[in-house]
Design a protein that fits this description.
17 strands; Aspartate Aminotransferase, domain 2; Arc Repressor Mutant, subunit A; alpha/beta; Aspartate Aminotransferase, domain 1; 13 helices; binds pyridoxal-5'-phosphate; three-stranded antiparallel β-sheet; 473 residues; globular
Length: 473
Amino acid sequence: MLIEWSAASLDLHLEFDLSHRRGRADRLAAAIREAIDNGRLPPGARMPSTRSMALELGVARGTVARAYEHLAVGGYLEASHGSGTRVASRRDRLEVEPVRDQPSGRLPAPRWNLRPGLPDVTLFPRAAWVAATQRVLREAPAEALDYGDPRGRLELRRALAAYLGRTRGVITHPDRIVVCHGFTQALGLLAKVIADLRTPTMTFEDPSYPLFREIVRTAGLDTLTAQVDEQGVRTQTIGRSSAVLITPIHQYPLGSALSAPRRRELVAWARECDAVIIEDDYDGEFQFHRKPIGALQAMDPSRVIYAGTTSKTLAPGLRLSWLALPANWVEPVTVAKRNADQHSAALSQMVLAQLITSGAYDRHIRRCRTQYRERRRQLAAALAAHVPQVELVGQSAGLHALVRWDPKGPSEREVLRAARRESLALSALGDYWSEPGPHRPGLVLGYATPPQHGYAGALAALTRTFGRVFEQG
Ligand SMILES: Cc1ncc(COP(=O)(O)O)c(C=O)c1O
């Protein structure tokens, strides 16, 4: 039987059988002990008085008192004059299991982090987010707190359709947008829909982000790979499949942009094979050259699914992303989204809509763009000055850069090992390939990851790391 009690200090659910009298105190003690062991009752939490708990549970006060006594002897509870009974601190417990917050032997977190995938989250526009949240809470209709359209809030879909058209050249309409929990969820939904097609296969660029391949395989699809060079994906290497997932603006992780001829070839391929192109525009807002490239989607909105996310512009913890879909994909993706989780959280969607329509989102992106451009410049300058053996490749864009060196030089593992001695976290290019090598060694460097005040230190640790491994070679 599930018992719930409330006291001035806490509410608690206990799983505990009241149906027969014998052993009630022991069973109550066991239920409370379990709540303490699994952290639901933390050290210092005030327990209800024996009287109020007995009343609440409909048991004799002596039963509760015996349970409390038993727990006090075991060091789980402590009674003190004037402040009632409280959960004891862990060290007072008999036979306590060691607390395993960290697996033993784990190294402390590295001091510097240049792994890719993260923006500088300290730049998150907290004041603008608070202002937008206040406005949304003041003005939101009651209906906003109810279940809503699986595609997401209309105000956000409207704001996105306008924003994506203005900044990325995407041709869409609010009705064709589905808001998701990050691109990670969006890809899972698309894979579900593709699983029902005649050829449930998806082609990935090689190299690419391994998690996405795993998500698609888990949905039951076969995955194929296509090669990538300095002009982006090599269209001739894309086999027959229902879909291809590409990062045309800034290939992840190699950093190349899909050239204009390849763009045309890719769209022609999709038409010929009756396939769909999924355009992962994960960092399209951060192009540092004069003439940013627009979304591929505009070349054929009936064949290209455009995907965007706030994970690089704001923070990955928000889990807010969007798909701009061809007309015939709206219904199946909406059904998949509804079946997954009804819809994404309404209030944060409304806050983002407010941020976009007020102009605060654009301002924030401009500010981040300036910082990331400067960081990339500093990275290039530091490598050119101190490590002539490595080459920075790829577009001047996004939040990461690829560094490669001659295969006769150190291995990626040797570089990672040297970095650990500098307390620097790095990511090897080798982890992104699906086809076995040999591949030229490299590192995928996330220059947006450290906070601004830690960037110079991280760069110095990087050049020391390279200095160490190339000196030895
Ligand atoms: C290539 C690529 N696309 C998209 C994303 C964004 O995923 P999400 O929106 O689920 O955070 C990431 C995040 O690391 C990524 O590496």
